Amino acid sequence: MSVSLWILSAIIILLMLGLGQRILDQLRLNDKQAIILLLAIAIGLIIPPIEIGLVSFSVGGFLIPLGITIYLLIMVGFSRDLLRAIIGTILTAGIIYGLEWVMPADPEELLISPSIIYGLVAGLVAYILGRSRRNAFICAVLGVSLSQLIQFIVNLSLGTPTKLGLGVGGAFSTLIIAILLSVALAEFMGRAFENATINKEIKKFNFETSTYDSVKNGRLRYKTSEIKTADAINMHEIKNANFTKND
Amino acid sequence: MKNKKVKLAKTFLGLTLIVMVVCSFFGAFSKPIKASYAESKNGSEKSYFTIFDVDDKSSVVFFRGDKVEDGDMYISSDNKRYEIVSIDEANKTGYAKFIGEEDMPVYKISKKISSKISSAFAEGKKTVGVYHTHNDESYIPSDGYDSVYGKGGIHDVGKALVNNFGKLGISAVYSEDLHLPHNSGAYTRSEVTASALINNNNLDGLFDIHRDSTPAKEYITTVDGKEMSKVRMVVGRANQNSAENLEFAKSIKAYADEVYPNLIKDIFIGKGNYNQQLTPRAMLFEMGCENIKKDLPIASTEPLAKTIDVVLYGSNGASNLSLNDVRLTSANGKAGVITGLANNQSNASLSFLWVLLGAIAFYFIVLGIVCIFSKTARYKTKRFFSELFAGLFVKQKHRG
């Protein structure tokens, strides 16, 4: 049983316990949909890969993640976010492709399996370029698959056709690790930035007392209309913060 | 403002395309068709690691073309186990510490046997898989280069092994699928081939055929008066099948040492998976090195195939041709029996099933423990299963 399958099982358990709900909300999925999708990925892996000529793809390892990606792309719509997702995908693919050449060819020279390293790097790149949880997911899935496609096309052009295995074997580990890492980073880093933003915004110098008034010490009073960055700041956390409204 | 953003986006897109083009040229396009991988190895730089005994620093334990790491294990031709304790990457040297004599399987065999006992395997039931992760590997004296962007000389060795399996009644499924280029992604690509071979065929063994890059004298040998190449086996220690793969390697070596002395060079136990996580009877064979004639590893495929035949299928399932080279003896003088590893029920699918069942059991145990202590978890679990099965198992309340 591969590392990625263990991770997948652990994620399903965590979701069943109600964790990670926030991430799923941002992906426009509720926890039950997510569990069903993850279970579908796990079950899809038991189904042998579908082979069409030189291309083979796994139902659980490629088709289902691709389906989610298409759904997310439709949700994104034609916007600047879409451009960011496309550029992120291309760069993620380019970096993984380059990494295959930079890393040592023999597995004994690496601490961990190359497919896991690709997954970690792809996850990081997808987060940096995608930024949002949705984009990170899209960049991870499409970026990893595109890097395989590039090598496939290069080999075809050199007259040495190789097989393209999407979401099969090591590619599945890469894909799952890339998805989980990028989405998790987007979530946790995003939350950290949000917290930093709230602290920065809701803190003012009081010239009368020569101290800082903040939401934390309960001395800062805001008018609702003054919260200009309401979209950026998590409204839920603001509502729970200890401050009062001015009439 | 909008124009500025569009300009920025276009610049970003342009840079992306430049990176893509550079990456492509940095990769395969800039490589010549022949000798792509080997060139870096064939310069003035020494292309192999030399490992000395840490207690006797003038004594060479072994040579290896690929990198050797601290903690790697080595079983020598005389069955001594060493552990690598230090590596000097700049000089490509290292030291190994003698751990002890390796406990090898014992085959009570000698000389020849004339008749076959019975066959437990019907024709066509004996199936193995053969493939090459590094398709480019070649032999300089025969092919003219040590690496080629395509099917290298190693494919001829693979074909010879498959032919010899065929003579012994073993159906060898041979995949000549390419996994180029010879870079860190090669094993990721060959895993697709190895998985397909396992999924589509009921394999008793899966063999990845490579060649090493050490001095030629390390591999040239004579078996039964015939000049041929030695064979090194490589076992990965980073997977769940490592112990069983090592037993498989040790069985092959123990049998070959009795019947075809000098054929098996040694066993290297290195970091990495080598796709051996897929089945407990996967093996990586290093068939000679790049500085020997290709005829030598081709010659060694015959005794290697016979060895695998007996080790996998035992004296009851192996071919007459394989058993003609050996006499089975036992303590009371009667013909003994070799039990083949293919008869062993501990195969890949069974291992996977146990792991899967273990994982499911582990999940329910963890869930149960959490539910005991957490009211929220109990509520959520109950709600989840209730909704999952549309309230099928929930007791309905009757409203008066």
Short account of what is shown:
The complex is a heterodimer of chains A (247) and B (400). With 247 residues, chain A is mainly alpha-helical.
Account of the 3D structure:
- The complex is a heterodimer of chains A (247) and B (400).
- With 247 residues, chain A is mainly α.
- Chain A has 2 domains: 3-195, no CATH class; 203-240, no CATH class.
- Chain A is built from 9 helices and 5 strands, in the order H-H-H-E-E-H-H-H-H-E-H-E-E-H.
- Chain A has helices at residues 3-16, 21-26, 31-46, 59-76, 80-102, 114-130, 133-157, 170-201, 235-240, and strands spanning 50-52, 55-57, 164-166, 203-206, 211-214.
- A 3-stranded mixed beta sheet of chain A has the order 1-2-3. A two-stranded antiparallel sheet of chain A has the order 4-5.
- Chain B is an alpha/beta fold and 400 residues long.
- Chain B has 3 domains: 2-30; 109-342, Aminopeptidase; 351-388.
- Chain B has 10 helices and 15 strands.
- Chain B has helices at residues 2-29, 39-42, 140-143, 154-167, 186-200, 242-259, 295-317, 320-323, 348-373, 375-388, and strands at 49-53, 60-64, 73-75, 80-88, 93-101, 109-110, 127-131, 171-174, 205-212, 220-223, 226-229, 231-236, 264-270, 282-289, 327-328.
- In chain B, the strands form 3 sheets. In chain B, strands 2-1-5-4-3-13-12-14-9-7-8 form an 11-stranded mixed beta sheet, with helices on both faces. In chain B, strands 6-15 form a two-stranded antiparallel sheet.
- In chain B, helix 4 (154-167) packs parallel to helix 7, helix 6 crosses helix 7 (295-317) and helix 9 (348-373) packs across helix 10 (375-388).
- Chain B is globular, with a radius of gyration of 27 Å.
- At the A-B interface, helix 1, helix 5, helix 6, helix 7 and helix 8 of A face helix 1, helix 5, helix 9 and helix 10 of B.
Estimate the strand proportion of chain B. Answer: 15-25%
Q: Count every helix of chain B, treating DSSP H or I runs of 4 or more residues as helices.
A: 10
Question: Using DSSP, what is the number of strands of chain A?
Answer: 5
Tell me the greatest interface.
A-B, 57 and 68 residues
Count of spatially separate domains of chain A: 2
CATH architecture of the largest domain in chain B: 3-Layer(aba) Sandwich
Q: Order of strands across the biggest sheet of chain B?
A: 2-1-5-4-3-13-12-14-9-7-8
Q: Helices and strands of chain A, in N-to-C order?
A: HHHEEHHHHEHEEH
Low-pLDDT parts of chain B are 23-44
Beginning-to-end CA distance, first to last residue of chain A: 62 Å
| Rg on CA atoms of chain B, Å | 27 Å
| Unreliable parts of chain A | none
**Total number of distinct structural domains of chain B:** 3
Would you list the SSEs of chain B in sequence order as H and E?
HHEEEEEEEHHEHEEEEHEEHHEHH
User: pLDDT average of chain B, as an integer?
Assistant: 81
Strand order of the largest sheet of chain A: 1-2-3
